[in-house]
Amino acid sequence: MELQEFYKGPRGIAVKILNRVERTDSYLDKLLDIELKSDELNELDKRFLTELTHGVVRWKTRLDFIIEYFCKNKFAMQDPNIRNAMRVALYQILFLTKIPHAADVNEAVEFVKKIRGQKAANLVNAVLRNIIRNLNKLPTPDSESDPIQYLSIMYAHPTWIVKRWVERYGFYETEQLLSANNERPTVVVRANSLKTNVDELAKLFDERGIKYVKSKYLDDFLKVGHLTGIYNLDLFNQGYFSVQDESAGLVVKLLDPKPGETVIDLCSAPGGKTTYIGELMKNEGKIIAVDKYEHRLNLVKQSCERVGLTNVEFIAEDATAVNFNGSADKVLVDAPCSGFGVIQKKPDIKWQRELSDIKNLVKTQLELLETASKLVKNGGVIVYSTCTIEPEENIEVVKSFLDKHPEFEIEDARKYLPSDVVTNGGYMETFPHKHDMDGGFAVRLIKVK
Protein backbone atom coordinates (compact mmCIF):
# COMPACT_ATOMS: atom_id res chain seq x y z
CA MET A 1 0.00 0.00 0.00
CA GLU A 2 1.29 3.49 -0.91
CA LEU A 3 2.14 5.82 1.96
CA GLN A 4 -0.37 8.36 0.65
CA GLU A 5 -3.21 6.03 1.65
CA PHE A 6 -2.46 6.54 5.34
CA TYR A 7 -2.93 10.33 5.27
CA LYS A 8 -6.68 10.31 5.78
CA GLY A 9 -8.92 12.56 7.87
CA PRO A 10 -7.86 15.90 9.38
CA ARG A 11 -5.19 14.40 11.67
CA GLY A 12 -3.55 12.32 8.95
CA ILE A 13 -3.61 15.17 6.44
CA ALA A 14 -2.21 17.48 9.13
CA VAL A 15 0.77 15.15 9.53
CA LYS A 16 1.30 15.12 5.75
CA ILE A 17 1.28 18.92 5.58
CA LEU A 18 3.57 19.27 8.61
CA ASN A 19 6.02 16.79 7.06
CA ARG A 20 6.19 18.97 3.96
CA VAL A 21 6.64 22.18 5.95
CA GLU A 22 9.44 20.55 7.94
CA ARG A 23 11.48 19.22 5.04
CA THR A 24 10.88 21.90 2.38
CA ASP A 25 10.52 25.66 2.24
CA SER A 26 6.85 25.36 1.27
CA TYR A 27 4.48 27.84 2.88
CA LEU A 28 1.95 26.36 5.28
CA ASP A 29 -1.03 28.24 3.86
CA LYS A 30 -0.32 27.14 0.29
CA LEU A 31 -0.11 23.48 1.30
CA LEU A 32 -3.22 23.85 3.44
CA ASP A 33 -5.15 25.57 0.65
CA ILE A 34 -4.58 22.59 -1.66
CA GLU A 35 -6.06 20.20 0.92
CA LEU A 36 -8.98 22.51 1.75
CA LYS A 37 -10.09 22.41 -1.90
CA SER A 38 -10.53 18.63 -1.65
CA ASP A 39 -14.02 17.15 -1.45
CA GLU A 40 -12.84 14.51 1.05
CA LEU A 41 -13.32 16.80 4.05
CA ASN A 42 -16.50 18.45 5.29
CA GLU A 43 -16.50 22.03 6.63
CA LEU A 44 -15.99 20.90 10.23
CA ASP A 45 -13.00 18.75 9.23
CA LYS A 46 -11.51 21.62 7.22
CA ARG A 47 -11.69 23.92 10.24
CA PHE A 48 -10.14 21.20 12.39
CA LEU A 49 -7.32 20.64 9.88
CA THR A 50 -6.58 24.38 9.81
CA GLU A 51 -6.53 24.52 13.62
CA LEU A 52 -4.19 21.53 13.89
CA THR A 53 -1.64 22.66 11.30
CA HIS A 54 -1.53 26.29 12.42
CA GLY A 55 -1.51 25.25 16.08
CA VAL A 56 1.40 22.81 15.74
CA VAL A 57 3.49 25.23 13.68
CA ARG A 58 2.65 28.07 16.09
CA TRP A 59 3.71 26.11 19.21
CA LYS A 60 6.36 23.83 17.68
CA THR A 61 9.31 24.33 20.06
CA ARG A 62 7.14 24.21 23.16
CA LEU A 63 5.56 20.95 21.99
CA ASP A 64 9.00 19.55 21.15
CA PHE A 65 10.47 20.56 24.51
CA ILE A 66 7.75 18.64 26.37
CA ILE A 67 7.86 15.56 24.13
CA GLU A 68 11.66 15.47 24.23
CA TYR A 69 11.59 15.47 28.05
CA PHE A 70 9.25 12.48 28.22
CA CYS A 71 10.84 10.76 25.22
CA LYS A 72 14.22 10.63 26.99
CA ASN A 73 16.02 12.61 24.25
CA LYS A 74 14.95 10.25 21.47
CA PHE A 75 12.32 12.50 19.87
CA ALA A 76 14.58 14.29 17.36
CA MET A 77 15.78 10.92 16.02
CA GLN A 78 12.27 9.74 15.10
CA ASP A 79 10.78 9.56 11.63
CA PRO A 80 8.93 12.81 10.63
CA ASN A 81 5.61 10.93 10.59
CA ILE A 82 6.10 9.91 14.22
CA ARG A 83 7.26 13.37 15.31
CA ASN A 84 4.36 15.15 13.67
CA ALA A 85 1.76 12.62 14.84
CA MET A 86 2.97 13.23 18.39
CA ARG A 87 2.95 17.01 17.92
CA VAL A 88 -0.61 16.91 16.58
CA ALA A 89 -1.75 14.78 19.53
CA LEU A 90 0.03 16.95 22.12
CA TYR A 91 -1.35 20.14 20.60
CA GLN A 92 -4.84 18.74 21.04
CA ILE A 93 -4.10 17.65 24.61
CA LEU A 94 -2.75 21.09 25.60
CA PHE A 95 -4.95 23.46 23.61
CA LEU A 96 -8.13 21.71 22.39
CA THR A 97 -9.70 20.66 25.64
CA LYS A 98 -13.10 19.65 24.21
CA ILE A 99 -11.60 16.48 22.74
CA PRO A 100 -11.01 13.62 25.25
CA HIS A 101 -7.31 12.96 25.77
CA ALA A 102 -7.81 9.25 25.14
CA ALA A 103 -9.12 10.00 21.64
CA ASP A 104 -6.09 12.20 20.92
CA VAL A 105 -3.74 9.41 21.96
CA ASN A 106 -5.60 6.62 20.17
CA GLU A 107 -5.69 8.48 16.87
CA ALA A 108 -1.94 9.11 17.01
CA VAL A 109 -1.16 5.53 18.04
CA GLU A 110 -3.30 3.99 15.27
CA PHE A 111 -1.81 6.30 12.64
CA VAL A 112 1.79 5.48 13.68
CA LYS A 113 0.98 1.77 13.93
CA LYS A 114 -0.23 1.69 10.31
CA ILE A 115 2.62 3.74 8.96
CA ARG A 116 5.58 2.60 11.13
CA GLY A 117 4.53 -0.54 13.00
CA GLN A 118 3.75 -1.66 16.54
CA LYS A 119 7.07 -0.75 18.16
CA ALA A 120 6.81 2.89 17.10
CA ALA A 121 3.14 2.93 18.13
CA ASN A 122 4.07 1.65 21.60
CA LEU A 123 6.56 4.50 22.02
CA VAL A 124 3.95 7.09 21.01
CA ASN A 125 1.38 5.56 23.36
CA ALA A 126 3.78 5.48 26.32
CA VAL A 127 5.06 9.04 25.86
CA LEU A 128 1.64 10.66 25.35
CA ARG A 129 0.03 8.84 28.27
CA ASN A 130 2.95 9.80 30.51
CA ILE A 131 2.49 13.45 29.51
CA ILE A 132 -1.24 13.27 30.32
CA ARG A 133 -0.46 11.86 33.77
CA ASN A 134 1.88 14.81 34.39
CA LEU A 135 -0.13 17.69 32.91
CA ASN A 136 0.04 19.62 36.18
CA LYS A 137 3.84 19.43 36.35
CA LEU A 138 5.12 19.73 32.79
CA PRO A 139 8.78 20.74 32.39
CA THR A 140 9.66 24.41 31.85
CA PRO A 141 13.03 26.04 31.16
CA ASP A 142 14.59 28.17 33.90
CA SER A 143 13.68 31.82 33.27
CA GLU A 144 16.35 33.08 35.66
CA SER A 145 19.44 31.36 34.28
CA ASP A 146 18.50 31.75 30.58
CA PRO A 147 15.61 34.16 29.96
CA ILE A 148 16.08 34.04 26.18
CA GLN A 149 15.74 30.25 26.07
CA TYR A 150 12.78 30.45 28.43
CA LEU A 151 10.88 32.83 26.16
CA SER A 152 11.95 30.96 23.02
CA ILE A 153 10.58 27.64 24.27
CA MET A 154 7.55 28.75 26.27
CA TYR A 155 6.32 31.07 23.51
CA ALA A 156 7.73 29.07 20.58
CA HIS A 157 9.82 31.63 18.70
CA PRO A 158 13.37 31.18 17.33
CA THR A 159 16.09 32.20 19.76
CA TRP A 160 17.61 34.77 17.40
CA ILE A 161 14.30 36.65 17.10
CA VAL A 162 13.69 36.56 20.86
CA LYS A 163 17.19 37.88 21.53
CA ARG A 164 16.69 40.81 19.12
CA TRP A 165 13.36 41.75 20.64
CA VAL A 166 14.54 41.47 24.26
CA GLU A 167 17.44 43.79 23.43
CA ARG A 168 14.99 46.23 21.79
CA TYR A 169 11.90 46.02 24.02
CA GLY A 170 13.07 44.33 27.25
CA PHE A 171 11.92 41.00 28.72
CA TYR A 172 8.40 41.95 29.82
CA GLU A 173 7.27 43.63 26.61
CA THR A 174 8.83 40.90 24.48
CA GLU A 175 6.86 38.34 26.46
CA GLN A 176 3.66 40.28 25.70
CA LEU A 177 4.54 40.47 22.00
CA LEU A 178 5.35 36.74 21.77
CA SER A 179 2.12 35.90 23.58
CA ALA A 180 0.10 38.08 21.20
CA ASN A 181 1.79 36.44 18.20
CA ASN A 182 0.51 33.06 19.41
CA GLU A 183 -3.13 34.07 19.69
CA ARG A 184 -5.58 32.89 17.04
CA PRO A 185 -5.93 35.76 14.57
CA THR A 186 -9.07 37.89 14.57
CA VAL A 187 -10.94 38.22 11.27
CA VAL A 188 -11.55 41.87 10.33
CA VAL A 189 -13.70 43.07 7.44
CA ARG A 190 -14.02 46.35 5.58
CA ALA A 191 -17.40 47.55 4.33
CA ASN A 192 -17.35 48.36 0.61
CA SER A 193 -18.52 51.97 0.35
CA LEU A 194 -19.33 51.49 -3.36
CA LYS A 195 -22.11 49.04 -2.44
CA THR A 196 -23.02 49.61 1.21
CA ASN A 197 -21.87 51.28 4.42
CA VAL A 198 -20.70 49.92 7.74
CA ASP A 199 -24.11 50.31 9.45
CA GLU A 200 -25.93 48.48 6.66
CA LEU A 201 -23.28 45.74 6.69
CA ALA A 202 -23.70 45.43 10.46
CA LYS A 203 -27.45 44.93 9.98
CA LEU A 204 -26.82 42.25 7.35
CA PHE A 205 -24.47 40.52 9.80
CA ASP A 206 -27.15 40.76 12.50
CA GLU A 207 -29.65 39.06 10.18
CA ARG A 208 -27.20 36.20 9.67
CA GLY A 209 -26.30 35.87 13.35
CA ILE A 210 -22.71 37.03 12.76
CA LYS A 211 -21.26 38.67 15.86
CA TYR A 212 -18.97 41.68 15.47
CA VAL A 213 -17.54 44.74 17.18
CA LYS A 214 -16.72 48.02 15.48
CA SER A 215 -13.09 48.89 14.92
CA LYS A 216 -11.55 51.34 17.36
CA TYR A 217 -9.41 52.84 14.61
CA LEU A 218 -11.36 52.76 11.34
CA ASP A 219 -15.01 53.73 10.87
CA ASP A 220 -15.68 51.29 8.00
CA PHE A 221 -14.15 48.18 9.62
CA LEU A 222 -15.81 45.45 11.72
CA LYS A 223 -14.01 42.79 13.78
CA VAL A 224 -15.80 39.44 13.49
CA GLY A 225 -13.60 37.36 15.81
CA HIS A 226 -12.67 33.86 14.67
CA LEU A 227 -15.46 33.52 12.10
CA THR A 228 -14.75 30.63 9.75
CA GLY A 229 -15.92 30.20 6.17
CA ILE A 230 -16.00 33.97 5.66
CA TYR A 231 -15.01 33.68 1.99
CA ASN A 232 -18.05 31.46 1.40
CA LEU A 233 -20.54 34.07 2.61
CA ASP A 234 -22.93 35.47 -0.02
CA LEU A 235 -22.13 39.00 1.19
CA PHE A 236 -18.43 38.47 0.44
CA ASN A 237 -19.05 37.04 -3.02
CA GLN A 238 -21.42 39.93 -3.80
CA GLY A 239 -18.67 42.38 -2.86
CA TYR A 240 -20.29 43.95 0.20
CA PHE A 241 -17.07 43.61 2.17
CA SER A 242 -13.42 42.60 1.95
CA VAL A 243 -11.27 40.88 4.56
CA GLN A 244 -8.51 43.24 5.66
CA ASP A 245 -6.57 43.82 8.86
CA GLU A 246 -6.83 47.25 10.43
CA SER A 247 -3.09 47.82 10.07
CA ALA A 248 -3.42 47.48 6.28
CA GLY A 249 -6.44 49.79 6.30
CA LEU A 250 -4.47 52.43 8.21
CA VAL A 251 -1.80 52.38 5.49
CA VAL A 252 -4.41 53.32 2.87
CA LYS A 253 -5.85 56.01 5.16
CA LEU A 254 -2.34 57.46 5.41
CA LEU A 255 -2.12 57.50 1.60
CA ASP A 256 -5.43 59.46 1.62
CA PRO A 257 -6.41 58.78 -2.01
CA LYS A 258 -8.95 61.23 -3.47
CA PRO A 259 -11.48 60.89 -6.34
CA GLY A 260 -9.94 61.92 -9.66
CA GLU A 261 -6.31 61.30 -8.69
CA THR A 262 -3.82 59.00 -10.39
CA VAL A 263 -2.53 56.47 -7.86
CA ILE A 264 0.08 53.78 -8.46
CA ASP A 265 0.08 50.67 -6.24
CA LEU A 266 3.54 49.28 -6.92
CA CYS A 267 3.20 45.89 -5.15
CA SER A 268 -0.54 45.40 -5.44
CA ALA A 269 -1.16 41.65 -5.00
CA PRO A 270 -3.29 40.21 -3.51
CA GLY A 271 -5.32 43.43 -3.82
CA GLY A 272 -6.65 44.38 -0.39
CA LYS A 273 -5.08 47.83 -0.40
CA THR A 274 -5.80 48.35 -4.11
CA THR A 275 -9.51 47.83 -3.61
CA TYR A 276 -9.62 50.08 -0.54
CA ILE A 277 -7.84 52.82 -2.52
CA GLY A 278 -10.48 52.46 -5.25
CA GLU A 279 -13.35 52.60 -2.79
CA LEU A 280 -11.99 55.77 -1.16
CA MET A 281 -11.57 57.27 -4.65
CA LYS A 282 -15.26 56.45 -5.31
CA ASN A 283 -14.23 54.63 -8.49
CA GLU A 284 -13.10 57.96 -10.00
CA GLY A 285 -9.64 58.78 -11.33
CA LYS A 286 -7.13 56.03 -12.14
CA ILE A 287 -5.33 53.33 -10.19
CA ILE A 288 -2.38 51.54 -11.77
CA ALA A 289 -1.92 48.16 -10.07
CA VAL A 290 1.53 46.69 -10.60
CA ASP A 291 2.78 43.23 -9.73
CA LYS A 292 5.63 41.19 -11.11
CA TYR A 293 3.68 37.97 -11.66
CA GLU A 294 0.59 37.60 -13.83
CA HIS A 295 -0.99 34.94 -11.59
CA ARG A 296 -0.72 37.27 -8.58
CA LEU A 297 -2.08 40.19 -10.57
CA ASN A 298 -5.08 38.02 -11.45
CA LEU A 299 -5.93 37.95 -7.73
CA VAL A 300 -6.07 41.74 -7.78
CA LYS A 301 -8.27 41.68 -10.90
CA GLN A 302 -10.68 39.24 -9.27
CA SER A 303 -10.91 41.38 -6.13
CA CYS A 304 -11.56 44.53 -8.17
CA GLU A 305 -14.31 42.80 -10.14
CA ARG A 306 -15.91 41.46 -6.95
CA VAL A 307 -16.13 44.89 -5.29
CA GLY A 308 -17.15 46.68 -8.50
CA LEU A 309 -14.05 48.72 -9.30
CA THR A 310 -13.66 49.82 -12.92
CA ASN A 311 -10.90 52.46 -12.64
CA VAL A 312 -7.96 50.08 -12.28
CA GLU A 313 -5.29 49.39 -14.92
CA PHE A 314 -3.21 46.25 -14.41
CA ILE A 315 0.48 45.93 -15.29
CA ALA A 316 2.43 42.69 -14.85
CA GLU A 317 5.97 43.99 -14.51
CA ASP A 318 8.83 44.16 -12.05
CA ALA A 319 7.96 47.19 -9.91
CA THR A 320 11.57 48.40 -9.96
CA ALA A 321 11.39 48.76 -13.78
CA VAL A 322 8.07 50.62 -14.11
CA ASN A 323 8.18 54.14 -15.59
CA PHE A 324 5.34 56.68 -15.89
CA ASN A 325 7.46 59.83 -16.03
CA GLY A 326 6.49 61.43 -12.75
CA SER A 327 2.78 61.61 -13.49
CA ALA A 328 1.27 60.04 -10.35
CA ASP A 329 -0.38 62.05 -7.58
CA LYS A 330 0.34 59.26 -5.10
CA VAL A 331 2.38 56.04 -5.04
CA LEU A 332 1.97 53.21 -2.55
CA VAL A 333 5.06 51.08 -1.93
CA ASP A 334 3.78 48.16 0.13
CA ALA A 335 7.18 46.53 0.14
CA PRO A 336 8.09 42.83 0.42
CA CYS A 337 9.42 42.30 3.93
CA SER A 338 10.23 39.74 6.62
CA GLY A 339 6.56 39.66 7.68
CA PHE A 340 7.29 39.65 11.42
CA GLY A 341 4.17 41.71 12.05
CA VAL A 342 1.85 38.96 10.77
CA ILE A 343 3.20 35.93 12.67
CA GLN A 344 -0.28 35.48 14.17
CA LYS A 345 -1.69 34.77 10.71
CA LYS A 346 1.39 33.09 9.24
CA PRO A 347 3.17 31.23 12.07
CA ASP A 348 5.58 29.44 9.72
CA ILE A 349 7.26 32.78 8.90
CA LYS A 350 9.08 32.81 12.23
CA TRP A 351 10.71 29.43 11.50
CA GLN A 352 11.56 30.14 7.86
CA ARG A 353 13.22 33.53 8.16
CA GLU A 354 16.86 34.15 9.03
CA LEU A 355 18.68 37.33 10.02
CA SER A 356 20.28 37.49 6.56
CA ASP A 357 16.79 37.72 4.98
CA ILE A 358 16.23 41.09 6.64
CA LYS A 359 19.48 42.46 5.25
CA ASN A 360 18.75 41.08 1.77
CA LEU A 361 15.24 42.58 1.71
CA VAL A 362 16.52 46.08 2.42
CA LYS A 363 18.10 46.28 -1.05
CA THR A 364 14.77 45.57 -2.75
CA GLN A 365 12.91 47.96 -0.45
CA LEU A 366 15.28 50.81 -1.35
CA GLU A 367 15.01 49.99 -5.06
CA LEU A 368 11.21 50.22 -4.84
CA LEU A 369 11.39 53.60 -3.12
CA GLU A 370 13.84 54.77 -5.79
CA THR A 371 11.34 53.77 -8.49
CA ALA A 372 8.50 55.49 -6.65
CA SER A 373 10.50 58.71 -6.42
CA LYS A 374 10.58 58.87 -10.24
CA LEU A 375 6.87 58.10 -10.64
CA VAL A 376 5.41 60.76 -8.36
CA LYS A 377 4.93 64.36 -9.43
CA ASN A 378 6.15 67.42 -7.51
CA GLY A 379 3.88 67.95 -4.53
CA GLY A 380 2.86 64.29 -4.73
CA VAL A 381 3.01 61.62 -2.06
CA ILE A 382 4.73 58.27 -1.53
CA VAL A 383 3.54 55.99 1.26
CA TYR A 384 6.09 53.33 2.14
CA SER A 385 4.71 50.46 4.22
CA THR A 386 5.61 46.99 5.47
CA CYS A 387 4.00 44.29 7.61
CA THR A 388 7.07 43.91 9.79
CA ILE A 389 8.28 45.49 13.05
CA GLU A 390 12.00 45.44 12.19
CA PRO A 391 13.61 48.93 12.14
CA GLU A 392 16.14 47.89 9.45
CA GLU A 393 13.25 47.40 7.03
CA ASN A 394 11.22 50.36 8.24
CA ILE A 395 12.51 53.71 9.48
CA GLU A 396 16.13 52.88 8.63
CA VAL A 397 15.18 52.24 4.99
CA VAL A 398 13.32 55.56 4.96
CA LYS A 399 16.30 57.42 6.44
CA SER A 400 18.63 55.90 3.82
CA PHE A 401 16.22 57.01 1.10
CA LEU A 402 15.88 60.55 2.50
CA ASP A 403 19.67 60.91 2.73
CA LYS A 404 19.80 60.54 -1.07
CA HIS A 405 16.55 62.40 -1.78
CA PRO A 406 16.38 65.76 -0.01
CA GLU A 407 13.40 66.62 -2.24
CA PHE A 408 11.26 64.38 -0.01
CA GLU A 409 10.26 64.89 3.61
CA ILE A 410 8.11 63.04 6.15
CA GLU A 411 4.62 64.41 6.69
CA ASP A 412 3.28 63.79 10.20
CA ALA A 413 0.92 60.81 10.11
CA ARG A 414 -1.18 62.35 12.92
CA LYS A 415 -2.94 64.42 10.25
CA TYR A 416 -4.44 61.20 8.91
CA LEU A 417 -4.34 58.56 11.66
CA PRO A 418 -5.18 58.16 15.37
CA SER A 419 -2.27 59.43 17.47
CA ASP A 420 -1.76 56.17 19.38
CA VAL A 421 -0.54 54.40 16.21
CA VAL A 422 1.87 57.23 15.34
CA THR A 423 5.38 57.64 16.76
CA ASN A 424 7.11 60.85 17.78
CA GLY A 425 8.87 60.68 14.42
CA GLY A 426 5.53 61.09 12.64
CA TYR A 427 5.24 57.61 11.12
CA MET A 428 2.82 54.74 11.80
CA GLU A 429 3.86 51.74 13.89
CA THR A 430 1.44 49.06 15.06
CA PHE A 431 2.01 46.01 17.28
CA PRO A 432 -0.22 42.99 18.05
CA HIS A 433 0.22 43.34 21.82
CA LYS A 434 -0.41 47.10 21.87
CA HIS A 435 -3.08 47.66 19.22
CA ASP A 436 -4.73 44.24 18.78
CA MET A 437 -3.91 44.19 15.08
CA ASP A 438 -1.05 43.10 12.82
CA GLY A 439 2.33 44.68 13.34
CA GLY A 440 3.13 47.17 10.62
CA PHE A 441 4.87 50.34 9.55
CA ALA A 442 3.98 53.19 7.22
CA VAL A 443 5.40 56.62 6.47
CA ARG A 444 4.02 59.43 4.27
CA LEU A 445 6.66 61.17 2.17
CA ILE A 446 5.91 64.40 0.27
CA LYS A 447 7.91 65.46 -2.79
CA VAL A 448 8.41 69.07 -1.81
CA LYS A 449 10.83 70.19 -4.57
From TrEMBL:
Pfam families: Methyltr_RsmB-F (PF01189), NusB (PF01029), RsmF-B_ferredox (PF22458). One of its GO terms (molecular function) is rRNA methyltransferase activity. It is found in: Cytoplasm. SUPFAM superfamilies: NusB-like, S-adenosyl-L-methionine-dependent methyltransferases. S-adenosyl-L-methionine binds at residues 267-273, 291, 318, 334. Its main location: cytoplasm. The keyword S-adenosyl-L-methionine applies. The active site is at 387 (nucleophile). It catalyses: cytidine(967) in 16S rRNA + S-adenosyl-L-methionine = 5-methylcytidine(967) in 16S rRNA + S-adenosyl-L-homocysteine + H(+). Its EC number is 2.1.1.176. Keywords: Cytoplasm, Methyltransferase, RNA-binding, rRNA processing, S-adenosyl-L-methionine, Transferase. Residues 177-448 form the SAM-dependent MTase RsmB/NOP-type domain. One of its GO terms (cellular component) is cytoplasm. Specifically methylates the cytosine at position 967 (m5C967) of 16S rRNA. PANTHER family: NOP2 YEAST -RELATED NOL1/NOP2/FMU SUN DOMAIN-CONTAINING, RIBOSOMAL RNA SMALL SUBUNIT METHYLTRANSFERASE B-RELATED. NCBIfam families: PRK14902.1 (NF011494), rsmB (TIGR00563). This is 16S rRNA (cytosine(967)-C(5))-methyltransferase.
